[in-house]
Amino acid sequence: MAEATDGKISKQLLKTRSGEFDVESIHSLCLREAGIDDLGCISECLSLERLDLSRNIISKLHKLAGLTNLHTLNLSGNNITSLEGLQALDNLKTLNLAGNLIGSLESLRCLTGLENLQELRLKDVIHSLSNPVCQNVDYRAEMISMFPNLSVLDGERLKGKGSELYAMCRELDRALEACDDEPSIVAPATKWFSDDVLTLQIPRKFQQSNLYDAEEQLKGLLAGCRRTSEEADARLVQLQSEFKS
Length: 245
Description:
The protein is α/β, with parallel strands linked by helices and 245 residues long. It folds into two domains: 11-157, Leucine-rich repeat, LRR (right-handed beta-alpha superhelix) (Alpha-Beta Horseshoe), CATH 3.80.10; 160-176 and 212-245. The chain is built from four helices and seven strands, in the order αβββββαββαα. A hairpin with a 2-residue loop joins β6 and β7 (156-157). The longest helix has 35 residues, at 210-244. The radius of gyration is 24 Å and the shape is globular. Residues 161-172 and 184-210 have low confidence and may be disordered.
């Protein structure tokens, strides 16, 4: 995998990674783990819509300001403290900043003008990536207040299908934590109901309960994940076939 010469993005690197002869024709670009610390001539990719710069050593983002067609940007695992430059990306919808050095909510304020921003990630529990700002006890509430248009924060859906399930999980976590804080009292074994109860059918009203709704939402989410996986596998097979031909 080609890496940036002296840590700087060059036209040759852009062409090698994208397979395009003209940098202005590049729509999607992956420069993951390329040893980049200088964005170089990235601003010449005027048609760029999807950009992955994860796991580099980038600290300054001002050269991204001209990429106004960009809608998906992954900057996870870098050395970013300031987001200056991103405020010009009016079409940005998805932004991943997990695993950087963003220390305050004030550092994020420049993004509040991005009306199309729907998904923002500053913390990735699965990959153990975070930012110092995430340690703030009011972090989540402040983020929701600052970015009212967000539908997904740190991988958690805030609006739309599935948001109720996440809310229920948070309430359950709080309840379990409260139980852990209370002294444990072991009560004598008691029969709380008769054996006849076990033979009763579950009332139809259960199908209208929050638990039932959550179960149905979870099934929907899993089905969506399955479809995405199948589509990805089909696309991979197609790309492999095109590569061999």
